Amino acid sequence: MSVVKGEVKLTRTDRSILMTGILHTDVEVPCSRCLTPFRQPLTLDIEEEYFPTIDVSSGAAVAVPNEPGCFTIDEHHILDLTEAVRQYALTAIPIQTICKPECAGLCPVCGQNLNEKQCGHQVKQVDPRWAKLLELKPVLARAERKKK
Questions:
Q1: What is the model's pTM?
Q2: 11 lies in a domain?
Q3: Which residue range(s) make up the domain with 38?
């Protein structure tokens, strides 16, 4: 992950600090089509609650809620956003990352990156389970022409 920019708002509640904000960053991910690494921009809409471990007035230890993944404010009263930002960034990465909309991908025969150069392989293999649908293509084209 690169630099994270944005604004956060910290609100004191009766038991914690509520942190909300919108942050912008980018991460390096591989393209799903050509496997070339590229920077994927991310927008993180964050809302997390941070619980103190030390009472600010007395300095006594405070019981932290017994919740898995609970964020805390350390004994020096520092609220560290690193882990929350990391978790939100992981969930914000698209399932299929594409370097550019016109990415040609890899040749299924030789693995050549088709964005860099053409390899000359002509691949027109049709999955036999879908082959019957190709028979509908001329029928649909005729129906489309009749509409016009």
A1: 0.71
A2: yes
A3: 5-92
